[in-house]
Amino acid sequence: MLNTVRTLFLTFLHAFQARATVQYPEEQPYLPSRYRGRIILSRDPDGMERCVACNLCAVACPVDCISLQKTEENGRWYPEFFRINFSRCIFCGFCEEACPTYAIQLTPDFEMSEYARPNLVYEKEDLLINGTGKYPDYSFYHVAGISIPGKDRGKAERERPPVDLHTLLP
Amino acid sequence: MNTLALLSGSLTLLGAIMVITRRVAVHAVLYLVVTLLALATVFALLGAPFAAVLEVIIYAGAIMVLFVFVIMMLNLGQPDREREKEWLRPRIWGGPALLSTILCAELIYSLSTLPQQTDSFSPLSARDVGLSLFGPYVLMVELVSFLLLAGLVTAFHIGRHRMENR
Amino acid sequence: MSHLPLLAIFLIPAIILALATLLTWVERRLLGLWQDRHGPNRVGPGGLFQAVADGIKILFKQDWIPPFADKTVFVLAPSIGMMTVLLSFAAIPFTPLSGIAGTLNIGLLFILGMMGLGVYAVVLAGWASNSKYALLGGMRAAAQMISYEVFMGLSLLGVVMIAGSFNLHDIVTAQTHCWFILPQCLGFFIFLLAGIAETHRLPFDLPEGENELGAGFHTEYSGMKFGMFFIAEYAGIILISSLVTTLYLGGWLGPVLPAVVWFVLKTSGVVIFFILLRAALPRPRYDQLMALGWKILLPLSLLNVTATGTVLMLRAAG
């Protein structure tokens, strides 16, 4: 009985406490930079696409919402198309963790509602941004031992020159 | 006044006829409720508002709800023509019908010979009802209360018996 | 004076319905306030038109009668609920002069009778839906509401004994010196609990019981028929609150302000208390509810009647 009265009183006191709800459209909620929101594809510092179409993100995706096709141009690998179906995406962030080149990243943006479901299928043009995202200095081709125009074998960072098989010198 | 009384009286009659002709039990009970409400109106028009309201509270509001409750518990949803036919053979209802016809004839006869009462009567208040209940009719009230107590004790006994058997 | 009741007959139900609709919004805002939320605050100033928006939505929803239902009774049930609640307001004296039948000499019994008939709405809805959850809800409602009607009637007897009348107008005027909540605090307490159970409001909303019965007796209802149940429930809250005001809080009596303002103030206080109960308390189990009624409230209300009678007899003798 007294417990009930106490409960009533304590609940009544909540009338004078601050409200936890954020008044969303007027008042934006604070989102930390590692918030898992809309997925983007980033570019390396040279402005080239980071994605090498390795398909690891598509394999890691638990809901199979990523699909892509590899193509090749001057030794660099690119996705011919890169498609994320956001009506399926659960924003788990596994694709970001699987990505070996930091290309696919999740951003603190969640305002992507649509009236029609097909509009939630994002193509490569929708996903690609003109920036490096969370890793400003990282460039996969500059640390990897693959030759591209402007960078030969052995020219990558912390990479020894390639071994010349035809010489007998040690 | 007279028109209203006639209207509610005929509603009572109509409702009563509907009660015994419906095949779905709940519909019959609903018509019985309508009958009781019309009867309450008749009471109110006769200058006994207390009795009218008690009719609504106790009969229409409580006892008939229990009827509906029991019907719901037994799930008597659908009309059951075969069973009704089985139960309603002329041999079964003939006797009661004959007796009620005699009673009805007697009632009509006595009503036609009754002296016409034209003077208006004052409404009977709750105080008057209470005074007559605990005045001239106190023995009846006590007897009824005994009966109710007996019913209460029986209900308690039956309920406890079931609980122990479980 | 002759045209006044006619006006009141049309005006009071309209006002009550509007207030009941508004109350849906007030309740959601207050629940938000007590749960550190905002509640609906988008439509109109402070969300005031949320009730209107909901009303429009519910009007345009498909009004579907399940094929397995008993159609006549299914349609009848919500209208019974609405009618009995609105008829009860006829006997409530809002001010010394107004009210459709404020000086009805059996006003209190009339309201009790209408509440008794209101049980049919829930029970018939449960039966006519012909579905198991609705049936369970209807059966719970029948048992709960009939039981609590008994305690409600018994708890009111104390007030009737002191005032010496079933006339609500007389009961209010008898409280000129002392509100009945002081001499009848036990009766007030029982009446409040019985009133919550009678309007099947939280925490005693076992006929609805979302967790176990879907939506209880109105599981199969949709559109405006559900809306009628919904509004009738809120009108029932207003009815019980105005009854509490009339019987225990001195009705329209109060200094300085006009009578109707006092009545509205007191009634809204009780309504807010009802909403606070919903915000704070969990729903008891069904057997706990019935045990509370028959094992605690019934003896308490009988004790209240006996004690009031004894005191009145002693005072009359001494």
Structure in words:
Chain A: Pfam families: Fer4_7. Chain A: [4Fe-4S] cluster 2 binds at residues 61, 89, 92, 95. Chain A: Residues 39-71, 80-109 form the 4Fe-4S ferredoxin-type domain. The complex is a heterotrimer of chains A (170), B (166) and C (318). Chain A is built from five helices and five strands, in the order αβαββαββαα. With 170 residues, chain A is α+β, with helices and mostly antiparallel strands. Chain A has a domain at 48-147: 2-Layer Sandwich (Alpha-Beta Plaits). The longest helix of chain A has 12 residues, at 2-13. The mean pLDDT of chain A is 89. Chain B folds into two domains: 1-103, Four Helix Bundle (Hemerythrin (Met), subunit A) (Up-down Bundle), CATH 1.20.120.1200; 125-166. With 318 residues, chain C is mainly alpha-helical. Helices cover 69% and strands 0% of the residues of chain C. Chains in contact: A-C, B-C. Chains B and C meet through α2 and α3 of B and α3, α4 and α5 of C.
Give me a quick take on this structure:
Chain B: Its EC number is 7.1.1.-. Chain B: InterPro entries: NADH_UbQ/plastoQ_OxRdtase_su6 (IPR001457), Nuo/plastoQ_OxRdtase_6_NuoJ (IPR042106). With 166 residues, chain B is mostly helical.
Secondary structure blueprint with pairings:
The complex is a heterotrimer of chains A (170), B (166) and C (318).
Chain A: H1 2-13, E1 39-41, H2 56-60, E2 66-73, E3 76-85, H3 94-98, E4 104-106, E5 121-122, H4 124-127, H5 140-143
Antiparallel strand pairs in A: 1-4, 2-3, 3-5
Chain B: H1 2-21, H2 25-45, H3 49-74, H4 81-87, H5 90-113, H6 126-134, H7 138-165
Helix pairs in contact in B: 1-2, 2-3
Chain C: H1 3-34, H2 50-59, H3 71-88, H4 107-128, H5 132-163, H6 168-173, H7 185-198, H8 210-213, H9 223-248, H10 259-280, H11 286-317
Helix pairs in contact in C: 1-2, 1-9, 1-10, 3-4, 3-9, 4-5, 5-7, 5-11, 7-9, 7-11, 9-10
Q: What strand order characterises the main sheet of chain A?
A: 2-3-5
User: What is the terminal separation of chain B in angstroms?
Assistant: 59 Å
Q: In the CATH hierarchy, what is the class of the domain at 48-147 in chain A?
A: Alpha Beta
Helix % of chain A is 10-25%
Biggest sheet descriptor of chain B:
none
> What characterizes the major β-sheet of chain A?
3 strands, antiparallel
**Poorly predicted spans of chain B:** none
Q: What is the gyration radius of chain B calculated from CA atoms?
A: 20 Å
Name of the CATH homologous superfamily of the largest domain in chain B:
NADH-ubiquinone/plastoquinone oxidoreductase chain 6, subunit NuoJ
- Specify the structural class of chain A: alpha+beta
Number of strands of chain A: 5
| SSE pattern of chain B | HHHHHHH
Q: Helix and strand succession of chain A?
A: HEHEEHEEHH
Rg of chain A (CA only): 24 Å
- Number of separate domains of chain B: 2
User: Largest contact between protein chains?
Assistant: B-C, 26 and 32 residues
Which percent range fits the helix content of chain B?
over 70%
Strand content of chain B: under 5%
CATH topology heading of the domain at 48-147 in chain A: Alpha-Beta Plaits
Membrane topology (chain B): Multi-pass membrane protein
EC number (chain B): 7.1.1.-
Main location (chain B): membrane
InterPro entries (chain B): NADH_UbQ/plastoQ_OxRdtase_su6, Nuo/plastoQ_OxRdtase_6_NuoJ
